[in-house]
Design goal:
alpha+beta; Aldehyde Oxidoreductase, domain 3; nine-stranded mixed sheet; disordered C terminus
C-alpha cells in the first residue's frame, strides 16, 4: 500500500485533470476510475453564473488523506487521488476530481463512487452558487440546509 500514490490536493486556478490522473496508475493497474465534477449552467432551474469554493485548507487536506486511507481499508485499490479546486470556478470548468487505480474495475469504480460521496459530505470545503438573483452557500454538513443570501 505504501508503494502506491496517495494524492490529496487543493488548487487555486484551473485543474490539470489529465496530469493529475496520470500520476496514479501503474503497471499493476487494469483500471483507472475517474469522477470529474464540472460546473453546470443551472441548479434546480436557476441559471448559475459561477461557483466559488472556500475551505479550511489544513483540515480539508487532513480529511482527504483520511478518506484515502478509509478507501484503502475497504477495497484493494492502488493509486488514489482527490483534487479540489478553490476560488472562483466558471461554467464548464472542473471543480473536483476523484481518481482510483486498481487491478480490477469493480474495486476502482466502487471506491471512486464512495470517495466522491464522502468528500462532498465530510470535507471542510464550502460551495457558493452565484445566480443573477442572489447566492446560495452549501457546506459539508448534510444535516444543515443551504443558506440563501
Amino acid at each position: 500500500m505504501d508503494d502506491y500514490p496517495s494524492l490529496a490536493e487543493l488548487r487555486h486556478g484551473p485543474l490539470d485533470v489529465e496530469g493529475f490522473c496520470a500520476r496514479l496508475a501503474g503497471p499493476a493497474d487494469g483500471a483507472l476510475a475517474r469522477f470529474e465534477g464540472r460546473v453546470r449552467n443551472q441548479h434546480q432551474g436557476r441559471p448559475t453564473q459561477y461557483l466559488q469554493y472556500e475551505a479550511y485548507e489544513a483540515l480539508a487536506l487532513r480529511q482527504m488523506r483520511e478518506l484515502i486511507l478509509a478507501g484503502r481499508r475497504q477495497w484493494p485499490i492502488h493509486g488514489v487521488g482527490l483534487l479540489h479546486r478553490l476560488g472562483r470556478v466558471e461554467i464548464g470548468e472542473a471543480a473536483v476530481v476523484v481518481a482510483v487505480a486498481a487491478a480490477h474495475r469493480a474495486e476502482a469504480l466502487a471506491a471512486c463512487g464512495w470517495l466522491i460521496d464522502q468528500l462532498k459530505s465530510e470535507a471542510a470545503i464550502w460551495k457558493k452558487e452565484v445566480f443573477s438573483t442572489g447566492t446560495v452557500w452549501h457546506n459539508a454538513i448534510p444535516a444543515q440546509t443551504a443558506v440563501e443570501a
